[in-house]
Amino acid sequence: MSRVGRLPVTIPSGVQVNINGLHVQIKGPKGAMERTFAPGVTLEMENGSIVVQRESDIPTLRAMHGTTRALINNMVTGVSTGFTTLLDIDGVGYRAEMSGKDLVLYVGYSHPVTVNPPEGIIFEVDTKIRQIKVMGYDKEQVGQVAANVRSVRPPEPDHGKGIRYAGEKIRRKAGKSGKGKGKK
Fold first, then answer.
1. What is the C-alpha to C-alpha distance for residues 98 and 126, in angstroms, rounded to an integer?
2. pLDDT at 174
């Protein structure tokens, strides 16, 4: 059996779950989410937790077993505590600031780049350490918006300037060695 799929998803207090066949609706303090899952798995409520079971050992169902449980767990975690992705800005004169709900990036272009947050996403900027927080209750959406912000000016390998994920290692190119120059 799947190591991930067999674990029950515990439901914290303040979160409401409604299971209708393969359609799951989850409401919590951060927001509400709903999703319909592929056939072949069954979803049940047992003792304040959600249990995911598969109908057979077909390889595609085995794969969907763990995936379905992970998606439900992300939905429950998102509506109860939310998700955050951190982005660091590195470069001389590079900075970010807020204009209402919009994120405004000054990252070496002749114009500022404005990023409008989609529904359910909140930006926060710490100007002292030049860090952007992308927060929301949908893990997929938080990751996609963070990737879109990073793609405005991805880190380059020569100097490492750009927008990168917090903790991301940038593979740097070797500088010029200077051997054999200047003598004839």
1. 10
2. 86
What 3-state DSSP class applies to 141? helix
User: Which residues, at least 6 apart from 173, have a Cβ–Cβ distance to it below 8 Å?
Assistant: 157, 158
Calpha distance 113→111 (Å, rounded) = 6
d(CA 164, CA 82): 21
Taking the model in full, what pTM does it have? 0.87
Cα–Cα distance, 2 to 17 (Å, whole number): 23
Together in a domain, 159 and 116:
yes
Per run of 10 residues, the mean pLDDT along the chain (length 184 residues) is: 83 93 94 93 92 91 92 96 96 94 95 95 95 96 97 93 93 78 58
77 CB contacts (<8 Å, ≥6 apart)?
A: 83, 139
CATH code where residue 34 lies: 3.90.930.12
User: Cα(29)–Cα(15) distance, rounded to whole angstroms?
Assistant: 7
- What is the CA 170 to chain-centroid distance, rounded? 19
Query: Is 149 domain-assigned?
Result: yes
Alpha helices in 12-138, H assignment, sequence order: 59-80
Instruction: Give the pLDDT confidence score for residue 111 in this predicted structure.
Output: 96
Residues 149 and 89 in one domain: yes
Based on the fold, state whether residues 73 and 136 are members of the same structural domain: no
Number of other residues whose CB lies within 10 A of the CB of residue 83: 19
